């Protein structure tokens, strides 16, 4: 069984698995109509799934103000209700959006906007503080990021947040935020098909938690490979940064082949494929906290079920690298 983890230097205790709340935000898009969500969603099913996750011991929920143009935060806040004190809530800022049209309209990296965004997130979440506040602009200017780091320290002093992080895949940028006393983590892409040794080394060196987005490779490691994806799903028209999917044809054949090559290892010990992918992340580093997405009670149960099965062994970890040639 995998045990609880600490968010870096913060002392904040979380379940070894968090739940990512991008998908429950529902449909939203950029000004050109590019879908940025995961398609239609049933809010009542989302609430039931969050309640089930809580019952199964999940205490960490990661969202962003822009997911569903505010909708994800509202759904999460409603679902947590009186159980807010039992969980650790992470959200993000930096993107600008129109809640009425559910459209991403731009970005804003100023400290002044950070305060406006935090105030709005607190209102949507129905809470007086955010446990982990994360910069959502992965390629923000490091000099401006230093200003935002100091703004986050001010938020900590005011009791509005407990800790902060940067959602970025660049270790050098993550290191800028890590200079702050209350920086606890970096959120970055990591899964069995897409390792990030540089970022994990930085987390180890600086005492940061590694919060893993795309732990299931946008569903590919949960068995998502059919061609038919609804129009409002970002994977139906994948942007350049989204690996593993091709427009109109679903999963890329080479990604499917690599997953099939790993299937026997990942499904060992009675695990589902998704549970095996999460088990790899826990074996990869003691600092990892994967945050798979969900849209149903069934997905919540499957993801949370990985906790009891624990990490892969060191031998299995080495075999994965051998199969993938790395």
Description:
This protein is α/β, with parallel strands linked by helices and 326 residues long. The protein has one domain (5-324): NADP-dependent oxidoreductase domain (TIM Barrel, Alpha-Beta Barrel), CATH 3.20.20. 37% of the residues lie in helices and 17% in strands. The chain contains 11 helices and 14 strands. The chain has helices at residues 43-55, 71-80, 111-125, 142-158, 171-178, 197-206, 253-266, 273-284, 297-304, 306-309, 314-324, and strands at residues 5-6, 13-14, 18-20, 60-62, 88-93, 95-98, 103-107, 130-135, 161-167, 183-189, 209-213, 245-246, 250-251, 288-290. The strands form 4 sheets. It has an 8-stranded parallel beta sheet. A hairpin with a 4-residue loop joins strand 6 and strand 7. Helix 1 crosses helix 2 and helix 7 packs antiparallel against helix 11. The longest helix is centred in the middle third of the chain and has 17 residues, at 142-158. The radius of gyration is 18 Å and the shape is globular. The two termini are 28 Å apart. The model has no long low-confidence stretch (mean pLDDT 94).
